[in-house]
From TrEMBL:
UniProt source species: Ponticoccus litoralis
Methyltransferase listed as a keyword: no
Molecular-function annotations in GO: electron transfer activity; heme binding; metal ion binding; oxidoreductase activity, acting on diphenols and related substances as donors, oxygen as acceptor
EC class: oxidoreductase
Taxonomic classification: Bacteria, Pseudomonadati, Pseudomonadota, Alphaproteobacteria, Rhodobacterales
Cell location: Cell inner membrane
Keyword vocabulary terms for this entry: Cell inner membrane, Cell membrane, Electron transport, Heme, Iron, Membrane, Metal-binding, Oxidoreductase, Transmembrane, Transmembrane helix, Transport
Protein name as it appears in the record: Cytochrome ubiquinol oxidase subunit I
Pfam families membership: Cyt_bd_oxida_I
Amino acid sequence: MEIGLVELSRLQFAMTAMYHFLFVPLTLGLSILVAIMETVYVMTNRPIWRQMTKFWGTLFGINFVLGVATGITMEFQFGMNWSYYSHYVGDVFGAPPAIEGLMAFFLEATFVGLFFFGWDKLSKVAHCVVAWLVAIGSNFSALWILIANGWMNNPVGAEFNPDTMRMEMTDFFAVLFNEVAQSKFVHTVSAGYVTASIFVLGISSLYLLQGRFTDLARRSIAVASAFGLASALSVVVLGDESGYATGQVQKMKLAAIEAMWDTHEAPAPFTLVGFPDQEARETHYAVEIPWVMGLIGTRSLTEEITGIKDLVAENEGRVRRGIIAYDALMTIREERDAAPSEARFRFEQNSMDLGYAFLLKRYVDDPREASEEQIAQAAWDTVPHVPPLFWAFRIMVGLGVSFIVLTAAFFWLTSFRGGHYPRWLLWGAVAWIPMPWIAAEMGWFVAEFGRQPWTVSGLLPTAMSASHLTIADLLFTLAGFMLFYTVLFVIEVRLMVKYIRKGPFQDVDETDDWQRRHEARLRSAGTVTPIANPAE
């Protein structure tokens, strides 16, 4: 198979997937924040909270629609560009996305209409329930998609059937409760909550700097700072859990992220910065923090984290066992029911390493004919490109720390300093709006690029997964997707900017009337307190 074909297929899927993920975090987080705001409205009956729900709900709706459009397009690529992957593992991989469409997407799509058009047709409590159902549906969608993705990283609950030449599901609950999928889900949704919180903080800070919609902005900051701080802290905890799960089932990915070329005595240090050299197989000018990587990767001070070189040696043995499995599989395939029991026994003993033999198809048509040099090269092919992984992970972690600092600062000033925010902090929040998206994209890059050269870890190499298309086909569709997505991106940005500039435009009179009556009641009771300018 042509390398150019595989690389173009990967580029197209990476472009569409990472573009789609621009919308996912904000949808996850805003759905929860909007539901919280409407809950406060139901509890307090203050129109300002209804106005806030409608305003942030409008921005959620714009983002939701664009996310649906890009998500549907992305899923079609499994059949178009990755047909052999779909054939090989479709019995397993197809189930979670199908359940997501039936259970979560229909729930979310149905109730999102009631949310926007049911304000005057439903009671306050019923509409609040609808808001929470939209939020639950959004998060359920992420759950099932991440179960499918988690299986690609840790393929449990399935076996290869030598008679059908396909993976078949053997334990649905093992797929459902896959430890990688569960840790990835909670980490991803928490990152989405942080994204929405920083977005709300940034837009609200802009309003305070402009002296517009200050009541809405101050209350939005109060909700977003508390919710964002809790979410940012949970991202750290859940990220640690994700790192531990990776250390158990994807040792090569963990070693590549850390640029750990040699096995280090326990407990392994964490490399804060350095310059990984893939050719020299060492990291130059490394600055290390003792013990930290051992705690993250093994949760102990006595267990080692295996280095890249030792993992390659292990994988060379797996390539050799994979050749034995491949030889037995060819015998079974040729002789079918007449295949000797000895061949089936050899296959069963070595079937878990069959995917490693497939790595040799990059060099020879029949893995049984591979030379010693090709076997050694196939073992080194299991090492992903280290420098991009190393730096992407550290960008993600560094930004994650900044989100904790930013949300904590706003939470402290809101809770204990009467909402007096220095202008530099408000401008910082505005400038920091894009950063959660950068962190999220870096996280997905680490997760997916770090799995290479596998589409399904240890089972199916990426080079075997692609459809038999032509370079011209891929270039044409890639250009079409780029044009289509560029148009969608322009539409998204223009709509968002339009409604942010417009500000809260619904229930304005009702909110202003309530505020005047409320201030009059405070004056008559002698308890009115002037509201300080929070931008001072």
